[in-house]
Amino acid sequence: MVWLHIRRALISMGLVVLVSGCVSQSDGDAGAWFAYSEGLGPTQDRLFICHGFGCIYRSPVRYSGRDTGHLRALLARGRASPAAEREAIARAVAWNERRVAPEVGSADDRGGLDLHNAHVRGQMDCIDEATNTTSLLLMAQTRGYLRHHTVGRPVSRGFLLDGKYPHATASIREKQSGKRYAVDSWPRGNGKAPDIVALKAWMSKDY
């Protein structure tokens, strides 16, 4: 089971790792990630939530005007500065995980490396988490809810040959400085705030 999960993770991330060395040099096209992950990109009012590890399952969740209004209000609290917006993004990602949980069955999604839950509906690995966070942030960006950041393509680190387990995360770029940040909701369970850290620091960290 462990090897099967590793193999699927490598297939899911393979193009990202091989083509761009963990995508550490450029943002790339965030929308192109959905071709790599075999996921479905966000629409104006719907996200396709990945779960089951490696985006095996994709559950459509429609967002009402009340939902998008709440998302806008959460992100508006960060308009004063880039740092404030990153804090607002963390709150929005946590809110979204709670929002989709009843429809996806992910309320008890466990954080971190949890291979025995592979292929279990509602459980998410880093591919699922990176895809879902990117979907949410793209929806927010399209609607004009982000002032200080743009959404990047998910990035990855580790490919076994370097002794590290493959791991992916969503990413954002600060407009003013060009500095990139990981938005990583994988280490914690459902509805918890993600780690938002400088991408360089994230790339060097072992979980």
Automatic annotation (TrEMBL):
Keywords: Signal. The keyword Signal applies. Residues 1-25 form the signal peptide. It comes from the Bacteria. This is Uncharacterized protein. It comes from Roseibium aquae.
